[in-house]
Amino acid sequence: MGIAALLCLAIVLSASSAARAWLPTKHPIIRGVNLGGLFVVEPWMMNDRWASMGCAGLNDEWQCVKSLGQKAADAAFKRHWSSWITKADIDEIVSYGLNTIRIPLGFWMKEDLVQSDEYFPRGGFKYLESVVRMAKKAGLYVILDLHAGPGGQFANQQFTGHSVSTPGFFTSANYERACQFLEWIAKIKHTNPNFATVGTLEVMNEPRSVTDEQRASLRNEFYPNAYNRIRQVEDDLNIAQEKRLHIQMMATSWGEGDPDLSWGGHSPYLALYDDHKYLVWDTGVPATRRDYMYHSCYNNVGAGSNSNDKPLLVGEWSLGVRDGTNSEFNLTRSDAVEWYKGWFAAQLHDYEMQKGWVFWTWKIDQLDGQNDFRWGYQRAVKAGVIPTNPAKAIAMNICDNYK
């Protein structure tokens, strides 16, 4: 990254009053939660809500809309959007010492991008506007994340909105639809005052190609086009350099190649990189308490990415483990809360060496009939696993016990 970009990043992430509109906090580390399930429903973590919408047994938003019919589905989703995240949630997030929310979005929120043979809910934008308005009033930094791309960017995943066996995102036509979505959001951010504390736009969440050609096209076609199209919107609007968006891409460690190769191996201006850390799916780490703790204390999350993937943000992580592999992780153990409390602190120890973290997710329903706090920040605080201010977890110095 060049000197100018570094200086601008320092301005953006500083605690000066001039930067408050960009990152409104006195703490330069991002500490946040995802508002998962709001605009991209994932039934696995919200079965009760999904059933109340009339979608029980259906795998994703596409199936729900197709089953209910457009009119009934729109009504069901509007009830969901108006109640899943409320002002009480935003106030609670702030009260827990957090300064950031990441909002996953589906491309279908820009309704003219939806084709006649696709099934997605309509009417979501005004609810997005309501959430970012509440975030602005509360002083929260906002990351908007294109979480579900046209055609689906990862096979067999609910978070794409349409779980398909072969991802269809990796085509020029769907890259174009995604770029149009990003242009639309970028223009709204800079022209709608409710979006004032939106500071980052992530161009695509967790793309997973199936061929080398797809991976190359992601890096050589989609990333540079998405970046340039957002910057062109800002050029056309004469946006000052210090007011421009961070543009976020998945880091090299995600496994889809080095995004910096799109720019000759150098980070472009105000780029931000996203790493997702889920030990629940990392078979390279033995599933024991001690191994999980040691890995989180000494893994150095930034080391897994290209050295140019800076600044780096851990945009998703959780307390999820490989259930069934080791009874040490059982929630019924008498020391479960204390151990998970320590593991939360260990992960913070690692992620705050970078630009910070955004937990997945804020709110969940019961999982398998139990109060499983490992995927829900709100539940974890109420269970005593996560402190009411994450600074208290850092102060535990938990990693001193695992040298």
What does this structure look like?
The protein contains twelve helices and eight strands. The protein is α/β, with parallel strands linked by helices and 403 residues long. It starts with a helix and ends in a 9-residue tail after the last helix. Helix 3 crosses helix 4 and helix 7 runs parallel beside helix 8.
Helices and strands in order:
Elements: H1 3-12, E1 30-34, H2 47-52, H3 61-68, H4 70-83, H5 87-95, E2 100-106, H6 125-138, E3 141-148, H7 172-191, E4 198-202, H8 212-236, E5 246-250, E6 271-277, H9 289-298, E7 312-317, H10 336-351, E8 356-359, H11 377-382, H12 391-394
Parallel strand pairs: 1-2, 1-8, 2-3, 3-4, 4-5, 5-6, 6-7
Helix pairs in contact: 3-4, 5-6, 7-8, 9-10
Subcellular location: Cell membrane
GO molecular function: glucan exo-1,3-beta-glucosidase activity
Protein name: glucan 1,3-beta-glucosidase
